[in-house]
Each structure stands twice: as C-alpha cells, then as structure tokens.
C-alpha cells in the first residue's frame, strides 16, 4: 500500500505517542518503562524497510488505519471533514538479504517478548508498532532515518562475515 498518512492520522499517532511517553516523563523516567513501546516502535520502523511479507503489510496498513481512525476522531471532536495527506516517505526497498535476516531476528525477539508481556505491555507494544510504522510513512521521519537501512544491512554483513570466516567462531 502506498497511501500517505493524513494530517488527522498524524494527530492520532501523536496522541498514542504522547500517551506512552507522558507517564514516563512525569514519573521516575526509568528507561525500563519505555521498553515495551520501544520494542514495538523498533519493529514498526524496521517493518517500514520491508517491501513485502507480514512486516511490510503492517507498515503499509498503518497509515491507512491511522488516517481513517484519526479522521473519525478529529472529525468527531472538531467537526472537520477532510484531511490533507502528508508528503509520503519511504524506507522500503533497500534491505539486502543479510539485512532481512537482522530484521527477522529482531522480529523474533519482539515476538518472544510479546509472549511474556503483560496485557498493558502488549498494548504499549502495539502502540509502538503503529507509531513506528506510521511515522515512517512521512517524508520527514523517513528522511531522518535514511541511514537505518544501511546500518541494518551492515550489521547483517558483519554477522555473515563472522559465520563465514575461518576461526572466528
């Protein structure tokens, strides 16, 4: 899907981001409080690099779902009926085979964390997944993370080199 995130969808994303960051900011600011949201957001951002598969589908659907839900929410509160799409950004199409393995391993780690998470932490993980994927659909956020696909690919290259080198492992 190549549907851009609308301004109303971005508003919904900001509300979800705020709902997850505010308790941390006003509380003890323990980094562990952000871990569930961060795991989901990381997976959403990495999913935005995928051209297909389950993560690519989720990343493609996030702007559509957010724009629809945001349109209804903002419309119900303000009476506004339309929303301008934001300039579309993209991280997809730049993963190598080695980078895809890194994304797969991170996804497996998040799934394992999901299985052990409490109900509230699962909600935070889903919110993070949505925020990461939908923010990457904007040109500004995707542009700010334009270094990430190369970094993921390099990590995959290093892992492959470590396993292919004689005497390293």
3D structure, described in words:
With 169 residues, the chain is an all-alpha fold. It has one domain (7-159). 70% of the residues lie in helices and 0% in strands. The chain is built from seven helices and no strands. Helix 1 (7-26) packs across helix 3 (53-78) and helix 4 crosses helix 7. The chain is globular. The N and C termini lie far apart (42 Å). The mean pLDDT is 93.
Q: Specify the oligomeric state.
A: single chain
Tell me the series of helices and strands, N- to C-terminal.
HHHHHHH
SSE class:
mainly alpha
Radius of gyration (CA) equals 17 Å
Overall tally of domains: 1
C-alpha end-to-end distance: 42 Å
DSSP E strands, number: 0
How much of the sequence is in beta strands?
under 5%
- Low-pLDDT sequence parts: none
The pLDDT mean sits at 93
Tally of helical runs: 7
CA-based shape: globular
* Major pleated sheet: none
Helix content: over 70%
Q: Quick summary of this structure?
A:
This protein has helices at about 5-25, 35-45, 55-80, 95-115, 120-135, 140-145, 150-165. It is mainly α and about 170 residues long.
Which features does this protein show?
single chain; 169 residues; mainly alpha; 7 helices; 0% strand; globular
Spell out the blueprint of helices and strands.
Layout: H1 7-26, H2 35-47, H3 53-78, H4 97-116, H5 119-135, H6 139-144, H7 148-164
Helix pairs in contact: 1-3, 1-5, 2-3, 2-4, 2-5, 3-5, 4-7
């Amino acid at each position: 899907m190549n549907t851009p995130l609308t301004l109303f969808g971005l508003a919904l994303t900001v509300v979800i981001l705020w709902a997850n960051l505010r308790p941390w900011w006003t509380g003890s600011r323990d980094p562990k409080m952000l871990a569930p949201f961060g795991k989901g957001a990381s997976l959403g951002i990495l999913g935005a690099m995928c051209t297909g598969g389950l993560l690519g589908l989720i990343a493609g659907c996030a702007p559509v779902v957010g724009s629809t839900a945001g349109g209804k929410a903002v419309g119900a509160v303000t009476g506004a009926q339309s929303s301008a799409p934001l300039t579309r950004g993209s991280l997809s199409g730049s993963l190598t085979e080695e980078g895809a393995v890194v994304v797969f391993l991170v996804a497996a780690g998040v799934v394992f964390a999901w299985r052990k998470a409490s109900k509230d932490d699962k909600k935070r993980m889903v919110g993070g997944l949505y925020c990461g994927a939908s923010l990457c659909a904007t040109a500004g956020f995707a542009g700010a993370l334009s270094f990430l696909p190369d970094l993921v690919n390099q990590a995959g290259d290093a892992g492959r080199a470590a396993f292919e080198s004689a005497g390293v492992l």
